[in-house]
Design goal:
3 strands; 3-stranded antiparallel beta sheet; mainly alpha; 170 residues; 65% helix; 11% strand; elongated
């Protein structure tokens, strides 16, 4: 669980630091956009009041708090799940990515009322109209990792137990 905690903390800090540096430091709130390495990387200010791609982005204040509660509930559930499962290394990394990203976006919703998105990437003549942030990438990677690596902790434990049993029999 220590690895999951470290990854979660690192993701949270990197997410919040990039948001402060770009949104506040580069004054992206007022500037609206900055071409960093066009068209591959641009900073475009977007306030996401919903979930991915602005889904459920009602202006109602209640939706903000519902999304905060959902993110916190999922984070607690994932944390308890990997703890109970005796998660392996990659499960812990994945859980840390997901939880750290979720908590980063929760802080945005509490402080700003919306998630600060600013990364925009396009390529090969396809213009991406959406912006995202470090937390969004971490959440996606963490969720994918949990799907790919779930059950590995138990398999590793069973192999170790079987090896120990065979050594004890000899």
């Amino acid at each position: 669980m220590r690895l999951a905690a470290w990854v979660s903390g690192a993701v949270f800090l990197v997410d919040q630091a990039t948001k402060v540096a770009v949104v506040q430091g580069l004054n992206l709130i007022e500037r609206g956009g900055i071409d960093v390495f066009p068209p591959f990387l641009t900073f475009r200010m977007a306030w996401n009041r919903g979930i991915n791609f602005g889904l459920f982005a009602g202006d109602a204040e209640v939706m903000r708090w519902v999304l905060i509660a959902v993110a916190l509930a999922i984070s607690v559930w994932v944390w308890l799940w990997i703890r109970r499962e005796g998660a392996g290394r990659w499960q812990q990394v994945s859980a840390g990515l997901l939880v750290g990203g979720a908590l980063g976006n929760v802080v945005d919703r509490v402080v700003y009322g919306a998630v600060a998105d600013f990364l925009n990437m396009s390529c090969c003549g396809i213009e991406n109209p959406y912006a995202f942030n470090v937390a969004d990438v971490a959440i996606f990677a963490g969720a994918l990792g949990l799907v790919l690596f779930s059950g590995q902790g138990k398999a590793d434990k069973e192999k170790k137990r079987a090896a120990l049993r065979s050594r004890l029999r000899k």
